[in-house]
Amino acid sequence: DIQMTQSPSSLSASVGDRVTITCRASQSISSYLNWYQQKPGKAPKLLIYAASTLQSGAPSRFSGSGSGTDFTLTISSLQLEDFATYYCQQSYSIPRSFGQGTKLEIK
Amino acid sequence: QVQLVQSGSELKKPGASVKVSCKASGYTFTNYGINWVRQAPGQGLEWMGWINTKTENPTYAQGFTGRFVLSLDTSVSTAYLQISSLKAEDTAVYYCAREYDSSRKYYFDYWGQGTLVTVSS
Fold this sequence. Notes:
By secondary structure, chain A is mainly beta.
């Protein structure tokens, strides 16, 4: 099974900051990497798929990059509504494992 | 528009069973697989398994075999998660999610709202 590890586990930042979250796979997953945003009490929401493709309706301040084992999610200028928990997920193989999550909090 | 609507919260005693439903609308149900994801209180997302809506064949993650059963009723575009012999540690929110295939890039593009299952005596 492929293990996904995110860092950091939590992050404090201010509105307007540029933020980067990383995700590492235990083996190469090509670009089969997705990012989700989850707010308290809500279902996760797809932000980016295939490592770098922005889901329709997701704000353009979100971007993704990487391939193989190392990936990043970048928020170019944090907005209030971006404070949430972010998860990466590999879709290279079954089981479809998630990272442990990165909680983005207001500084 | 695509929607996945799950059944409501459940409170069950240890040892009982529960069946959570996930009703799909706005698309051809048998064109996309349905995945199930568990989120224990204060914890992250855990993939439980998926069911192929064309063949009705389920696949389970390790740790979700035996007491967990995924099934379908394609006549009403609904997927089900049944959990038997419930334990306190099954207390969680359970999500269904549609898996989209874009040129073999798979992702969960629509999610149900989640169903809270609480197991308590």
